[in-house]
Write a structure and sequence with these properties.
Elements: H1 2-8, H2 11-40, H3 45-49
Keywords: Membrane, Transmembrane, Transmembrane helix
Transmembrane segments: 12-32
Length: 50
Amino acid sequence: MVIMTLVTGDLGLFLTPLADLGSVLVGLSVAAKLKDALKAAPSHKALKRV
């Protein structure tokens, strides 16, 4: 049912929330990498401020 709607319906209605979700996931992964960097280099004062 969802696939048929994607094929025959308005793609914009589905692509926009998917793009928003994708950007959120990217932001979360970047934040996780930053946290890992903070743990890996605790002596770096510039990283501690982030």
